[in-house]
Input
Amino acid sequence: MAAAFITFEGIDGSGKSTQLRMLASVLRLRGIEVIATREPGGTRLGERLRAALLDSDEQVDPLAELLLYAADRAQHVRQLVRPAIETGHVVLSDRYADATVAYQGGGRGFPPALVHEVIALATGGLMPDMTLIFDLPIAQSRARGQRRHDGGDQDDRLDAETDEFRARVRDAYLQIAAAEPDRVRVIDASRSIEETHARVLELVMPLIESKVQSLKSNA
Output
């Protein structure tokens, strides 16, 4: 089995969760063992932390938010992500460490040194093989959120954030991509679901195929 760790990032409404599910389905149809997970969440503890972090009625202090996301990630890495990679699975995660850089660093304004120290502690140095950032203009993000609300989806705490906050988060994501072009790919999320999915496959499948070939060569 060819292990790989791929993370999906982007502002709310970017469609990353939909694209993760679509990619997972394609890989499974090709006989690849996939674990699809998310942050916050992914473990029993993580799901409890997710409920608290995203509760629209909860007033979460920014520092508490930073540390709760770190606690979720520490549990996620040690209980699910690292063991899955070590047993040869492809792990697809809806958000990971870059979300902390973007949301708590860019959005909340925590110093980069503190953010990276917290991330290093939580992840133990585990970084993705590839990160896909689904980039979307702020106006479209807001419009998609409104459509979800009108369709009956319950708003979470981050849905109440201002467009200025979302813009800072988006800018932080783009800065991450510019700083790490070998790992991070930016995808235009304003296109149709089908067009975006095609781009995901175009980027991800060469990585998966290289992992498979490497495994065969070492067998």
About this structure: Residues 4-218 form a domain with the Rossmann fold fold (CATH 3.40.50.300). Residues 106 and 169 are 5 Å apart (CA to CA). The helical segments are 16-29, 44-54, 62-86, 97-107, 112-123, 138-150, 163-179, 193-218.
